[in-house]
Design a protein that fits this description.
Elements lengths: L3 E4 L3 E6 L12 E6 L1 H11 L4 E8 L2 H12 L3 E8 L6 E4 L9 E4 L23 E5 L8 H14 L3 E5 L10 H12 L4 E5 H8 L4 H11 L3 E5 L5 E6 L5 E6 L12 H13 L5 H4 L2 H17 L13 H10 L5
Parallel strand pairs: 1-4, 1-8, 2-6, 4-5, 8-9, 9-10, 10-11
Antiparallel strand pairs: 2-3, 6-7, 11-12, 12-13
Length: 329
Amino acid sequence: MATAVCLGELLIDMVSEEADASLQEASRFLKAPGGAPANVAVGLARLGVASSFIGQVGEDPFGDWLRDVLAGEGVDVSHVLRSCMARTTMAYVATRRDGLKDICFYRHPGADALLNTVELRPRMFESARIFHCGGVTLSQSPAREAQMAAAKMAIERDVLISFDPNWRPSLWHDHAEARTATWDMMQLCDVVKIADEEWEFLIGTPDFEAGAARIREAGPRLVVVTRGADGAYFNAGDGRGGIIAGEIPGFAVDAVDTLGAGDAFVAGLLNRLMRYRALNDALNEHSLREALRFANACGALATLKPGAIPALPTQPQVEEFLQSHPPSD
């Protein structure tokens, strides 16, 4: 039975094979499975966590292929629906080593955006300990409402909720609406992970400490900011009125493609958090630093191959990487 449930987009990433070429310049693309929450579901499965995925693809060969890919990775796909109203979403991605995103979505709408609340069932959350979702699903209805409803179902069952805003400007007609939807979602969450390049737009301040305090006031207990090769910043309440905050250095690797690195990081973080009976048990300096070092390693390893899902590391790969990169202190 699944212990982690991920909901959101499952799509085709067409990844350029030429590093640092723009979408206009790229001449060859590699078909790869993707979609941030789907990446996290596979990432968790590769790290030994039973996971399931809730989402929707089109009744087309690409949708069938994506479903088969997830099933082949050990992800429960019994809640992956097929839509006859829209095709499977595609995203063309320019491969970049600097971590910036150059993505063009074909989603007008895509099947993932048509996921409807009426298709959700409480049994989807049986035995779940973590529910993870992202910001792409919030960009269109009815999927936005479905994600919010799923989060509320998870809350009713005392499931820990993780959220990655995954800001993609081209998917939103109204950027102010994006901020509002992001904050509405964060109020339902326990753990929020945000990339540094989207932090100021979504949170309204460049200051991590001030922004994290604002987020925690809204409800989440743990805020993590990913900073690429520079590692991660964390900020959490310790359950006794105190604050635990700090930075964890990243790992220097020869990155090929950073697409999916943040999702690998999330999978690594959730994998570590699931070792504890409750989130509060993990909210201490030692546990958070250990969890984020592991997550940083997952993110670093995911940059060594093109594509998102193909690059996600396994538990033995992460352990071997950490052994060969001992802490400097």
